[in-house]
Amino acid sequence: MVEPAIRPQPHRQYQSRLATEILRRLDQVLPVGDGPYPLHEPLFAGNEKKYLAECIDTGWVSSAGPFVERFEAELSSFTGLHAVACVNGTAALHTCLLLSGVSPDDEVLVPTVTFVATANAVSYCGAVPHFVDSEADTLGVDPDRLAAYLDATLEPRNDDVWRNKVSKRPVRALIVTHIFGHPPKLDRLKAVADQYGIALIEDAAEALGTFHESAHAGSIGDCAALSFNGNKTITAGGGGAIITRDPDVARQAKHLTTTARVADGFDWTHDTVGYNYRLPNINAALACAQLEQLPRFLAAKRRLADDYIAAFDDLPEAAVISEQAQAHSNYWLNTLLLKEKDRGTRDHILTETNSTGYHCRPLWTPMHRLPMYRDCPAMELTTAQSLFESVISLPSGPALRLG
Amino acid sequence: MVEPAIRPQPHRQYQSRLATEILRRLDQVLPVGDGPYPLHEPLFAGNEKKYLAECIDTGWVSSAGPFVERFEAELSSFTGLHAVACVNGTAALHTCLLLSGVSPDDEVLVPTVTFVATANAVSYCGAVPHFVDSEADTLGVDPDRLAAYLDATLEPRNDDVWRNKVSKRPVRALIVTHIFGHPPKLDRLKAVADQYGIALIEDAAEALGTFHESAHAGSIGDCAALSFNGNKTITAGGGGAIITRDPDVARQAKHLTTTARVADGFDWTHDTVGYNYRLPNINAALACAQLEQLPRFLAAKRRLADDYIAAFDDLPEAAVISEQAQAHSNYWLNTLLLKEKDRGTRDHILTETNSTGYHCRPLWTPMHRLPMYRDCPAMELTTAQSLFESVISLPSGPALRLG
After folding, report:
1. With B345 labelled, which of A15, B235, B244, B371 sits at a CA distance of 20 to 30 A?
2. Are the beta carbons of B271 and A120 separated by less than 8 Å?
3. 8 Å CB contact between A186 and A180
4. Which pTM value belongs to this model?
5. What is B48-292's CATH number?
6. Do B274 and A120 count as a contact with CB atoms less than 8 A apart?
7. 10-residue mean pLDDT series, chain B (403 residues)
């Protein structure tokens, strides 16, 4: 695939003016004198030490223990879904794909705008990512362009599986990512997936506390992955979870993530190739302490988002992404989107903000530009390319607005 | 493969007599009144709480942090090898296989006597386990029978890779497991691997503190996997490590286990399909506290082993496995081996010991008998079958003999 040329950089004086305007607004939201401001720092203001000490005192630190069950129950209560804790978000995504029947030499539709784990999880199944484009308003997969693309690209086969006309590989699943906590247009994406009989998997790694029409992220897809990495809204050190409406999928997820072990008298047997994707009890203890604080964290993050949106409201060159009408975002990372003519300024602005004490970050390099995914099938990815040139994520941790 | 019939059970009175003899000796080593005795409980008698609290106070709990580097440095110092921490022993094994060039449709020689993770890690590469037999004195792969088998089974090809004559698949690696901490006959196994130009991987999940002729487990193979699961000599909750003599292999292991990320200005790129196999800092903190106590734990476990060996010395029907001349075992799990005529008593003895408060465990079901591995290539596995009928592992935690 030929990449569009990178836009020429606007001249230096103009770049500096725009950077100055952005810095002035950041200073309104987060006074520069109180910085520096990390992109997203974890916050430990609850029972973290107490629960960790409990693990040491009781001896339960590892693959079994009361905090794992408690975390699953409380996560289930918060999301309204069945929840299976696992070792990290990547493991959760891999498990979702396995449970959706993704097999070697299948294709899985994956947004090119996502963290690398989304595409890697497809590779772990021996399957091939097939990259699709995103839209600017949600940063998620564009349902209309996806529908038109699949209409032209897939063909039905006798066995009821739709295949890529060119590669002849079955297309088994569609992964949609909640980028920075913003839900994609799930109803329309679900309709597209259903039309072709493919599984819908929500990569909700960044989306704990995100809702789509009052249903938590993960409610519309067949299953979804959460992450509790250190940079997420709450953290377990590592940690992830598979969440799903379907109790059978949850049971299978638990089995597959715990080495597929089956009791057989004194003997240990395993009925399929399983995984050691268990969340240790010590990490679950941290997760329990953090989950207790989630409502406060989400409220703080929403206050910060409101402040960013207001501060940048009058800047014609860039806007802070806000939630869509159907969405309630967790605002994991507040994000500035440069307007088209200003995309060449991204690295200059990143240099200025980072050197001033605001730790800001661009979008991930789109998946189809990474060497191992360069030759994968892909639709035209023009919006992804312009998002890559225009996204700047801003400091967003809950500590920045905790009451 | 047709399984030999399970031996008929000796009559009940005889079984009871043998169980009584075994219980009497267990009571000498571990007085029944002080029980119950778990199989292998973690012991937290050092800086565990202090280091965990440090993680919370500093905010470093996740995929980066000072305890990860410290643990790697201290593990390297203890083993004399390069060490890369990762999320668990399974991930370490998978990484070792990837670094040995194991690819889809290769075969990997794997002992059928091992924990399921050993075979599963081969499956994760899309490769096929090819099962080999073990020997009774080390419980590890039998080098002589392996050499004879490979001589009859492999054929060279033009590309210098030896292939299975029947399946035509390249045989890429040999995994040898240090069962219960006992090293296999590594020099002779290394010679066999070298003869066929295949990688030697040591599954040393159970073997931290095990030495072969004064070199730590992992020193002879191309790389090795350690585990710090809750039931191991020291624990990180979860946790594992890749250890190797070769600094290049260690560098590649670090890269592959940390999403293969490459710095590129402000952008995040990844140069190959990587893994999220990082050990969180909070688990590394626990590992550091545990590693400080390792010499005491190993000394305690050795005292317990000596006591078991002495207590069972006069029992004709069973013997406690002791280290070979070339070996210094960590005695992770002390293990009783029933003599041939008494193998039918295994489950009766397990019932009696467990109900008396001694948590004892049989060997894992051999890999070639699990449904997903039943059709894999295999040599004659007669010793594995008799080991399966005769192994009883005994309570072995360090707390049982801590000074």
Report:
1. B371
2. no
3. no
4. 0.96
5. 3.40.640.10
6. yes
7. 49 81 97 96 97 96 90 98 98 98 98 98 98 97 98 89 96 98 97 97 98 96 97 96 98 98 92 98 98 98 98 96 95 95 90 97 97 98 96 97 86
